[in-house]
Design brief:
about 350 residues, mainly beta, 5-stranded mixed beta sheet, 23 strands, globular
């Protein structure tokens, strides 16, 4: 080896040594810590949670019955820290009932309390995984046990938001009846005992139509979730506003849905009852699930679901496009507001709003 090559090699070694010293003194003291904090934040966000929910069943006026949140604790399954999110839910009793929002990998435990003094209500989900003891049905159907809350004894249901459960799913009563035994095989979900569980995908991304382009958006960038239940003759609605720390608000029958201009919103359309409906929104298009095909209507049957995510930039009317239900008033408005809270409706652009 020549002297010139030896000198070059020595220079490289000295340079690397100085670099390591600087890295230890500077990088690991600042950049290294920043990286560690970033990783820690990412890891914290991905921790699975245990949802410890105490839910009551209450009889309302007008022959309605509904679920309500009594207590809701989120427990981190890695560091065992807890967060009480009970205050995120309405104090009054909502229809549809309280929406549960989870991520793939989470566990959900619901202790159902019968606050009516009669009957045997339950919760039966169409989305999360569960063992037969948490099916929320009667022994006559499941061949194992009656899974419902009596007036004197709560019942605990355990769900698993396992891999492949991402989506928006209805849950409802499957055991309550008004006969002399207080039981029925079908349940009384249509009088108000229905709600949703939204399970976000583990990768944190959902399909969306933004400015007419199919894309994926981060779940954390969704500003609002709208939950619309299509009943046989009305829409029941609620919303979750993530710009207000995940505040849940019950919106009532055929509600007006509001969103800030250019915000990202997700529609969770569920169906309850016995009829098929063709859900439609004029002035708005979205992606047909699993495709890049743009649609503005979708046929939905009993206890089925339909989910889509869009950017709010056009006022619209949503409705069941069957003539009978439309004439009966089965419709509501979607209103996009500017930063000052004023409607951004453009008379020419939004001329088709009903």
């Amino acid at each position: 080896m020549t002297i010139r090559k030896l000198l070059s090699l020595k220079l490289v070694v000295i340079t690397m040594t100085i670099g390591l010293v600087i890295a230890n003194a500077v990088s690991f003291g600042s950049i290294g810590n920043a990286i560690a904090q970033s990783n820690q934040k990412t890891e914290q966000r991905s921790h699975p949670k245990n949802h410890e929910i105490q839910m009551g069943v209450k009889e309302l006026s007008d022959d309605r019955i509904a679920y309500k949140i009594n207590k809701y604790i989120l427990r981190d399954l890695v560091d065992n820290s807890t967060t009480d999110i009970t205050s995120n839910y309405d104090n009054h009793i909502p229809i549809p009932g309280p929406t549960i929002v989870a991520n793939e990998g989470d566990k959900i435990e619901i202790t159902l309390i019968n606050e009516m003094g009669w009957g045997y209500p339950s919760v039966h989900t169409h989305g999360a995984h569960y063992r037969i003891a948490s099916d929320g049905t009667l022994k006559d159907l499941n061949k194992v046990s009656d899974q419902a809350a009596s007036p004197s004894q709560p019942y605990t249901f355990e769900w698993d938001a396992g891999n492949g459960t991402a989506g928006s799913w209805p849950f409802h009563d499957h055991t309550l009846g008004r006969n002399v035994f207080g039981k029925s095989m079908d349940g009384l979900e249509t009088v108000g005992l229905f709600s949703s569980i939204i399970i976000n995908p583990a990768n944190g991304k959902v399909d969306a139509l933004i400015d007419g382009i199919p894309t994926k958006v981060n779940v954390k960038d969704i500003d609002k979730d709208f939950i619309l239940f299509v009943n046989d003759d009305v829409f029941w609605g609620s919303e979750i506003d993530y710009t207000k720390n995940g505040k849940h608000t019950q919106l009532g029958i055929n509600p007006t849905l509001t969103a800030a201009n250019n915000s990202i919103v997700r529609f969770n359309i569920q169906s309850i009852g016995n009829e098929f409906h063709n859900f439609e929104m004029n002035n708005v298009h979205w992606l047909k699930p699993g495709t890049n095909t743009q649609i503005n209507s979708h046929l939905i049957g009993p206890l089925a679901n339909h989910v889509f995510t869009i950017k709010a930039d056009s006022n619209a009317t949503y409705f069941d496009n069957s003539k009978i239900n439309l004439l009966a008033g089965m419709k509501g408005n979607f209103v996009v507001a500017d930063n000052n809270g004023k409607s951004s409706m453009n008379p020419e652009r939004d001329a088709n709003v009903i």
